[in-house]
Amino acid sequence: MKIIVLVKEVPDTYGERKLDLETGLADRDASEAVLDEISERALEVALSYADSAGGAEVVVLSMAPESATATIRKALAMGAASAVHVTDAGLAGADLGLTARTLAAAIRRTGFDLVITGNLSTDGSGGVLPAMLAELLEVPNATALSSVEIAADSVSGTRSTDDGNMRVSAPLPAVISITEALPDARFPNFKGIMAAKKKPFETLSATDLEIEPADVSAAASIMTGIAEKPPRSAGVKITDEGDGGTKIAEYLIANRLV
Amino acid sequence: MTEERDALIAAVREFAGTELAPNAARWDAEKHFPIDTLQRAGDLGLGGVYVREEFGGSGLSRLDAVAMFEELAKGDTTIAAYISIHNMVVWMIDTFGDDAQRERWVPGLAAMTALGSYCLTEPGAGSDAAAITTSARRDGDDYVINGVKQFVSGAGSSAVYVVMARTGEPGAKGISAIVVPDGTAGLSFGRNEQKMGWNAQPTRQVVFDGVRVPVSNRLDVEGAGFGIAMKGLDGGRLNIAACSLGGAQWALEQALRYVHEREAFGAPLAANQSIVFTLADMETELQAARALLERAAGKLDEGASDLVPACAMAKRFATDAAFHVANTALQLHGGYGYLHEYGIERVVRDLRVHQILEGTNEIMRLIVGRNLVNRL
């Protein structure tokens, strides 16, 4: 069983998150870079399975700037067996389509039985990458799982929606994404951190994956505008003159909040 | 490799932030000794930071250790200080024990599934540690230990007690270090002392009433105990000083935030030059303490000939500076600093004892001063 976990370096949610108004890219210097918590939970799902079922190999995969090495290595310190880091200046600012094509190529190259991702990253918050990967890899996809059971030839779990919980399952190979309902990840311990530097760490470029980032024949998104987040304005005060309830209702309706 | 060191320190910071900091106030108020949390510290590798890897230690340097204890203390100074003492005990067994002793005790201690206590001070012998009267009388292949040890951290919860006891002549040369496992007949403990701070770890007397242990529990040769106890303290002093630094650094950060938020006379406190000068002094004192501490840790790592005074002056300076900084942070908070809720008064209470234990700061001056005078 080979499990690939997608991990992502993101700006720490405690810090300020900013976009560079020149390039439209995330300003990576604006706050501390950390391993996305949802990535850690996805890794925990894989590691827990590997702990209980012998013979499972956990590989972490990330498409990230070169500077993300230390963050990816944290995933190795937590217990992943090896890492694949796709890094290429041409991929900076890649949209979801290019990201999915690149990651799918790396996943195929590495080989997999199961791909585990978070449901959405805390920075981009796209939430569609798992489905795009499954489409490109031509395998089943179960998204937003709040519980996961992995078996030798299938994966199943609970998918929570606004209308209720569904039980879903798929034969392997498959792609799943998980939610924050799954347990916190383990801490990397000193032994893990010291072992991490000896684990296989493969670095791949777009060319290695036969991806042409500037390929204009592929559909791509275009950024049409970017602006600074507007400053917070003072809230609306409603003075109750006997019609306070009506005014609140009108405000909520006018702002489409109900 | 600095990336690896950063990752190690970051792991400790994360542990302190998630496992210690959210609980520190409650553990202090309830006098709760969090043995389960200590086991997780052991899982991380904090049970034997600078203990060799052979029997489960983490094999890191003293320089790594002081950075780690500083991070731990930002979460909870008392628990950081307890882990510091535990490390001292494990290091003593690993360094001065034979392979059989190391194999028997180090794995559990390094994992912190077993805790260790250091027993030197007695009701009648503190700074004059060579005057201890607890005796270990040879009886065949056993020692029979009688006496009372005072101010023992972790007493009643520990699995092993490293006891300095008199096996020979009066003075330092007649002392041996003996490991007494918990549960040995004749071993008992006093009440949990009511203290100013350090409430999250128990401090009790340890009473030896005809405690019989095999001679094979003695570390190194007979008469080596005082030297072992003092060598343990060299590192212990650095770790305690690092705990002071962490607590004070945390208090400084709280104060920094407070002087920005709190307004008086129409402006934030930070707009006052007197406040800015005070903050500058706090920062400078802590940076100086850290530099002195790192210097001493480096000397301990390389076994420099002047490591003893280097550790003593670092301990004296850092624990005094840190107490002063924490107390100043309290003052900057005004009345709020005096409330439990803000955590500052707890750190002040906790750091006060660091000027007393692991050798009082007066004894530190004696070590530094004598070393200086004897140079001539």
Structure summarized in a few sentences:
Chain A is α/β, with parallel strands linked by helices.
Overview of the molecule:
The complex is a heterodimer of chains A (258) and B (376). Chain A has 258 residues and is of the alpha/beta class. In chain A, 26% of the residues lie in helices and 24% in strands. Chain A is built from six helices and eleven strands. Chain A has helices at residues 37-52, 69-78, 96-110, 129-137, 190-196, 244-254; strands at residues 2-6, 9-11, 33-35, 57-63, 82-86, 114-118, 141-150, 154-161, 164-171, 174-178, 201-204. Chain A has a nine-stranded mixed β-sheet, with helices on both faces. A two-stranded antiparallel sheet of chain A has the order 2-3. The longest helix of chain A has 16 residues, at 37-52. Chain A is globular and about 70 Å long. The N and C termini of chain A lie far apart (48 Å). With 376 residues, chain B is α+β, with helices and mostly antiparallel strands. Chain B is built from eleven helices and ten strands. Chain B has a four-stranded mixed β-sheet with strand order 1-4-5-8. In chain B, helix 1 runs parallel beside helix 4 (62-75), helix 7 (225-261) packs antiparallel against helix 8 and helix 9 (307-332) runs antiparallel to helix 10.
The first-to-last residue Cα distance of chain B is 42 Å
| Count, helices of chain B | 11
Q: Provide the succession of SSEs of chain B.
A: HHHHHHEEEEEEEEHEEHHHH
Q: Describe the sheet with the most strands of chain A.
A: 9 strands, mixed
Overall mean pLDDT of chain B stands at 97
Q: Look at the helices and sheets of chain B and give the structural class.
A: alpha+beta
End-to-end Cα distance of chain A: 48 Å
Poorly predicted sequence stretches spanning 5 or more consecutive residues of chain A: none
Portion of residues within helices of chain A: 25-40%
Determine the most extensive contact between two protein chains.
Answer: A-B, 14 and 16 residues
Radius of gyration computed on alpha carbons of chain A: 21 Å
Q: Name the overall outline of chain B.
A: globular
| Strand and helix order of chain A | EEEHEHEHEHEEEEHEH
